[in-house]
Design goal:
mainly alpha, disordered N terminus
């Protein structure tokens, strides 16, 4: 008798709500939907070939994450943060991420290091292709591989909520090729510190990493304010 055929894992079922959520996340990451822009549910549903219901449920999920806001009688809008709010979010991230990194570095395994190194390569490859969605995904994979090694799921969830709330601004940052190159140079230095098990250096580099991002976003937001005449 021949060997029994291996059983393939069941295919992941993508719901209508899941499809709408993925599409909305991608549009925000690419910058197709900008901070303050209205999201027209009916139009989006037609474009996706869905009813309005799953689109509305996806928007509720994004609202809970802080990526969109709901205005009564007007609908949903991509969240708009000012520099003060962005700076506050990044400051809270610093407090939480420092703790996560300090706990994670001694626990990182070879697979984690490989995953972080692959994320660096993916950022570079996607950056050259100007695929902002893929850059954003690889960037997140680099950081959350590190945070995840802390083995503190609740801490990781708080960090993820802060990242989600500022996602609309990552597309502004990554739209500039200079920022994408800087990010990967910084990732390489962070990974080197991680491999050396140098917690203090890794935390210092991650702080500089965040500071560079918020400084650049401050400049971008100031320029947009001037251009809008507000």
């Amino acid at each position: 008798m021949g060997q029994p055929s291996p059983v393939s894992p069941p295919a992941r079922i993508v719901t209508a709500q899941g499809a709408a959520l993925t599409d909305l996340r991608d549009r925000i990451a690419r910058g197709d939907l900008r901070p303050g822009e209205q999201i027209r549910q009916e139009l989006l549903a037609v474009e996706l070939g869905l009813s309005v219901v799953p689109v509305r449920e996806a928007l509720k999920t994004l609202e809970a994450e802080g990526q969109v806001v709901y205005a009564p009688n007007r609908g949903y809008f991509v969240a708009r943060l000012n520099l003060k709010e962005l700076t506050e979010a990044y400051r809270i991230r610093e407090l939480l991420e420092d703790e996560a990194v300090a706990r994670a570095i001694p626990r990182l395994g070879k697979e984690d290091i490989t995953r972080m190194r692959e994320a660096i390569r993916d950022v570079e490859r996607s950056s050259k292709a100007k695929d902002i969605v893929a850059v954003t995904a690889a960037n997140r994979r680099f950081h959350f591989t590190l945070f995840g090694a802390a083995d503190m799921p609740r801490l990781g969830n708080f960090i993820r909520m802060l990242w989600d709330s500022t996602d609309p601004y990552r597309s502004l940052y990554f739209a500039d090729a200079r920022h994408r190159r800087l990010v990967n140079d910084e990732h390489a230095m962070i990974l080197e510190a991680v491999c050396d098990t140098d917690i203090d250096r890794a935390i210092k580099l991650l702080r500089q990493h965040r500071d560079n991002a918020i400084a650049s976003l401050g400049t971008i937001l100031a320029e947009k304010q001037v251009n809008s005449g507000s």
